Every structure is written in C-alpha cells, then in structure tokens.
Amino acid sequence: MLERTLARYLTEEQRDKGVITADLKFLIEVVSRACHAISIAIGKGGLGGVLGEAGSDNVQGEAQKKLDVLSNEILLEANEWGGHLAAMASEEMDLPHLVPHRYPQGEYLLLFDPLDGSSNIDVNVSIGTIFSVLRCPEGADLSSPEASENAFLQPGTAQVAAGYAVYGPTTLLVLTVGDGVVAFTLDREQGHFVLTQENVRIPADTKEFAINMANQRFWEAPVRRYVGEMQAGREGPLAKDYNMRWVASMVADVHRIMTRGGIFMYPMDDKVRDKGGKLRLMYEANPMAFLVEQAGGAATDGRRRILDIIPDRLHQRVPVILGSRNEVDRVTRYHAA
Ligand code: P6P
Fold first, then answer.
1. pTM for the whole thing?
2. Helices in the chain by DSSP H: which ranges?
3. Which domains does the chain have, with CATH numbers?
4. Which end is more exposed in the chain, N or C (fewer Cβ atoms within 10 Å of the end residue's Cβ)?
C-alpha cells in the first residue's frame, strides 16, 4: 500500500475534509522540515560540535544549551519567509519575533519550545520540540515585538493545531489539527514523515504515573494524598499496584502516555510557587493539553482545565496534570475536596 506521508495526510485534511487551510497545511509542513533539521543536528551530538552550553541564558534565566539556540534559529529561519505567519514566540526569546517586512505576513501565530528537555541533551536521553498554532487576531498590533505580545494571549481552546517531535531511537511527529491525533515516523532514507499511527487514544485508566518524586516535600496536600495512594498499591484505596517513570523531558513522558496511557504531573510546589509553576502555559501546557484531549485524555492545573486558562503574559507558567482521564479527574477532585 502506498505510504501515507505527512504531506498526503495534510492534503486530505485540507482538500478533502476542509479541516485546515492551505496556509496551515504549509505551516505544518515547514515546521516538520525544521524538526527534521533539528533531528539531524541532534544526531551528530559530539561530532557536530553542538553539545554543551551556549554561554547565554534564556528569558527563564536558564543557561541555554547550544542546541537550544540552534533549534530556535532553525525554526525561525524556516518559518519567517513563507507568508503564512504574522509572528513567532519561543521559550528561548523574551519577545515575539515579527515576520520581517521584506516577507508577506500571514494569518497565523506560531509558538514553540524549540528543544524541550535540554538537561537531557548531553546525556543522550530523548528530547523534543513542542509547537502550537493560533490565528493572529484581526487588527492585532504588530507594530513592535513588545506590542505584538497581546496577539498571543489567547486561551488554549483557540489553538488550530499543535504537535511535538520526539527525538529518540526514532524521530516521531505527533500532531493534531483538531481532528484527532496522528503520529508520523521520520523515514531518514526518504527524508519525509510517514504516517505510522492513526487515531491515537489514551486509555482512561492506567497503572503508571510520572512525577519528580524529589519534590514530594514541596507538594500540596491533594498531590501528596494521590501519590501516597498510588504508592500504597493493591493494599491501598486505589486497589492496584502502580509503576513510575520520570524522563524529565516532558515530550518523552507525554509521548509514553499518548502511546500506553499514564498520568504526568508537574504540580504546584513551594519551590516554583512564586513563578506560578514549572511548565510554560503557551508553548508546553497548551499544545500538550490540546493533543491529550484530542486523544481522549484530560489536562488540568489541578483545579482548572488547562485549555480554558486565559493567559496574561507570554511566558506564564502553570501546574500541569495530564493523561488518562479517570486518573486526572481523581487528582482534580482531590484538589476540590
Ligand atoms: P525537573 C525540561 O527542562 C522540563 O521543562 C520538562 O521537559 C520536564 O518535564 C521538566 O522540565 C523536568 O523538570 O524539575 O524534573 O528537572
């Protein structure tokens, strides 16, 4: 049977089903090619001189890795000339990047974490790229990077597409355009992404949880209660034994959940309370929440549906609890108790 490539899937979504526009189809193809280029750079590792620190800090005050900076540049350069975008925002940039006037402006806004899980780069553990697509509001003020920030401040329900690339033993692209979730595998010989999983679904129940247990003493009571109940296993109130995984690359942990279920938690804790949480709403929590819900799962900050949160700043952080719906519902109930 003829392989269904990303290009064919997007054509079917655009031409045959009318789910996406031609410009959004083009945008996603450009992002996929950028992820392919990032995958190649990562694959060179020490041979490509791309490991280690860049010698700079990002807007989060975190030391940037060379690959953080390179991945960001690859995504900016790939997307700014096509005429499909008005502006881009990135974890690695304090302010949005406006499409230069020498290029036509488009109707979309692209947000991304160009390389998530940077602490895992130098130890050869899976990392990823996360992206989110919004429409640029009519009449948005794009007169300066500072002024353009308001155009991005839309709730996650306004996303028209979201996805991630996970750079692991294989390079995968997992995508939603609001019509379910599909997964593509990079065929390195052919140089394109081939559809390898249609209709990704997250089981409603699970026996596997993902959380950084080192933060246990900093968690709020509902999370301590829930994790304690899972640790109690079959003798405890949940009456089943659980297993734990923590890759410390959100993309890798979320991809495991998209593949076999589970619950991922980076909840509020006293260490990050002053920042609002650990993970970023606009280009980590929102795209992952869109994907998870499209796959039948749930995503909250412990109290609110992630996708309903109205952002008040571009680099806003939130607690994140996402994955198998029945488990997320339980934790969220504990927060309401
Ligand atoms: P910790 C990576 O830096 C990241 O933003 C997410 O990808 C990951 O889930 C989390 O931070 C890991 O945080 O505190 O366990 O190192």
1. 0.97
2. 6-11, 22-44, 66-79, 145-152, 221-232, 250-260, 286-294, 325-336
3. 6-197 (3.30.540.10), 208-336 (3.40.190.80)
4. N
